[in-house]
Amino acid sequence: MTRVVVVTGTDTGVGKTIAVAALAAVGPGRVTVLKPVQTGVGGADPDVPDAETVHRLTGRAARQLTALDEPLAPDVAARRQAVPIPPVGDYVDHVRALAEDHDVVIVEGAGGLLVRLDQDGGTLLDLAADLAAELPAGAAVEVVIVTRAGLGTLNHTELSVAALRARGLEPVGLVIGSWPDSPGLAEECNLQDLPRVTGVPVLAVLPQGAGALDREDFLALAPTWFR
Known about the structure:
Shape: globular
Keywords: ATP-binding, Biotin biosynthesis, Cytoplasm, Ligase, Magnesium, Metal-binding, Nucleotide-binding
Structural class: alpha/beta
Enzyme class: ligase
Strand content: 15-25%
Family: Belongs to the dethiobiotin synthetase family.
Protein name: ATP-dependent dethiobiotin synthetase BioD
Distance between the termini: 23 Å
Binding site for substrate: 39
Low-confidence stretches: none
Radius of gyration: 17 Å
Mean pLDDT: 96
Number of strands: 7
């Protein structure tokens, strides 16, 4: 059975790309990663594309479809750059095509669930819901939420879970994107409270700095981060 894993964050900068890499590292069979929209890749100091980071860490195939210069929400970046960007439906078609010849397709969002990926108001939540409705029999859509370890994470995570459930999507799990070397009281409590308040299990806890590992170490350690 083909699995399409849609990965979102509770916010930007929560460790989503490293979580995608970890999921790709442990995924069975033919695994590919798709980043529908990447922003912040232009200017004098461009960000490293997330697809490049995933490939560097895992060796898995990874690609982005739309690249925008400024580090803003995609619809805002496109408007400021005065360029058209594809509607969410086009991204759904790309995922469906990849699902035909891969065992696992991992889709990395931009920021959180309600960040607009196109100029028609389409979001990652829309993309996930459309995939769940349109994928052929024998394919499953799973949504993973990457969240912070510290203060504020309970509220942000509960809001993300509620938004998914309002569209009939039950998230399969949470990933804590960056666990500090010396966790404090808030982090330790949140690790216990996240599944309690959301009803969603914590699938993995990724150590701070995991993205700096070389490929050999990342692939060797990634399975140990999953619970």
